[in-house]
Specification:
about 425 residues, alpha+beta, BirA Bifunctional Protein, domain 2, Enolase-like, domain 1
Length: about 425
């Protein structure tokens, strides 16, 4: 019923298909010259009744495309007289905040094994898992009209009006149900002229996959990067099986359109008819010139991993007795200690503290090994460099396989760079 109403409303408002996006966008675009003049002049903000609203529905399920669209709109559109709520969903992926450490926040080896994308967004906040059971929402407005509480209250009202689900907004601006189960996290980006607030809503996400993708592992990382706060989560579909991503998208969309732009009040059907309605958007370079370039940057290794704040890693590994010199008795536990400093995702400094028992059993040449590691990515690239360095230090060039002691060092190093 709600979807039928939406289709009728879109038709009655002449917001048919994709064509309206090109027209709406062209009206909203602010050129660089206009930006300069706007900065020089004092901004005159419209009255509440002069602000119209649209609900944009992205047709992409690719995380990098949707983040690029979000960034494109933030950079290029003028939201002074026109507020936009964009709804979007993604194939399985992990999205970290702008100032976070992916090796600390996500199970990188699991993501690689399952071909799950990792993305870094432009806003702050913590790490989230997305799949097709998530509804993602972005609220765009002018900087002066940014109001996170308004947006969250609107979602809260939509949940109750559409499904009778009671929820609260906690001190962290999470939306929670049943006292302490989180269904939505939130983050924002505020510029000089434009701002956006975005959040996720768990509808019927795969919680088992979520747990595996965000599983904490022993890592030995020390950093000043923003760390996520772990919370118990719930799916809205577990509370009411009638909640689907489509029905929730419709409920929140109508709540947005029936609410005045600057304060929470039910404006009913009359308010809905004053708005621009639901509009499909096709995030391609044809519709949004420059989008592909933004997408390429957002999916690059240098952005996703290389923008990680400086961190150090320290790990200790006990050496198995069978690898120690058999003629020696050691009073202390023999441990291999690996210390690294990683900057821009690259190994900047590294030390391997080799215990006497391993040296006396024949392991040597750690200095040449360290030289080969500096400047390598904190990934399997560094592991490959370590293995190559241990092979090339053999005087006998016919050696093609690491011995047991070298294999042990490589396995420990592999655990440090989080590839197994």
């Amino acid at each position: 019923m709600a979807q039928t109403m939406m289709r009728k409303f879109v038709l009655s408002g002449t917001c048919v298909g994709l064509g309206i996006i090109r027209r709406s966008s062209s009206r909203c675009l602010v050129t660089s010259s206009n930006n300069v003049s706007m900065k020089k002049k004092e901004r005159v903000l419209p009255e509440e009744g002069e602000i119209t609203k649209s609900v944009f529905m992205s047709q992409s399920t690719d995380i990098y495309t949707n983040l690029a669209l979000e960034d494109w709109m933030y950079r290029n559109m003028d939201f002074t007289n026109h507020h936009v709520m964009m709804v979007w969903r993604n194939e399985p992926c992990v999205v970290i905040g702008r100032h976070q450490n992916p090796w600390l926040e996500a199970n990188i080896s699991h993501l690689t094994e399952k071909d799950i994308s990792l993305a870094r967004r432009n806003s702050g906040g913590g790490t989230v898992y997305h799949d097709r059971g998530n509804l993602n929402i972005t609220f765009f407005s002018s900087r002066e009209r940014y109001d996170r509480k308004y947006n969250l209250e609107l979602i809260k009202r939509a949940l109750f009006r559409g499904f009778g689900i009671k929820s609260i907004i906690n001190k962290r601006d999470d939306i929670v149900v049943r006292d302490n189960y989180k269904i939505s996290g939130t983050a924002a980006k505020l510029g000089r002229l434009t701002a956006y607030h975005h959040c996720t809503l768990l509808v019927n996400a795969n919680k088992a996959d979520l747990s595996k993708a965000l599983a904490k592992r022993e890592h030995g990382i020390q950093t000043k990067a923003t760390e996520s706060t772990r919370s118990a989560v719930a799916n809205l579909a577990d509370i009411d099986h009638k909640v689907t991503v489509d029905s929730l998208q419709t409920a929140v969309g109508y709540e947005y359109l029936r609410t005045p732009a600057l304060h929470i009040e039910d404006g009913g059907q009359g308010m809905i008819m004053k708005q621009r309605g639901f509009q499909f958007v096709n995030p391609t370079d044809n519709w949004f010139p420059g989008l592909d370039e933004l997408k390429q940057e957002l999916q690059s290794w240098d952005w996703c991993f290389g923008r990680t704040p400086v961190f150090t890693v320290s790990r200790t590994f006990p050496v198995p007795a069978e690898l120690l010199a058999p003629s020696k008795v050691y009073t202390a536990t023999q441990e291999l200690v690996i210390n690294m400093t990683v900057e821009k995702g690259l190994i900047d400094d590294v030390t391997l503290s080799i215990p006497p028992g391993l040296i006396e059993s024949g392991f040597h040449g750690e200095a040449s090994v360290i030289t080969h590691l500096k400047g390598k990515r904190f990934t399997s690239e560094a592991l490959n460099a370590l293995q190559d360095a241990m092979l090339t230090r053999h005087l006998n060039s016919d050696v093609k396989k690491l011995d047991e002691k070298e294999q042990f060092v490589a396995k420990c190093f592999d655990q440090v760079v989080n590839t197994i």
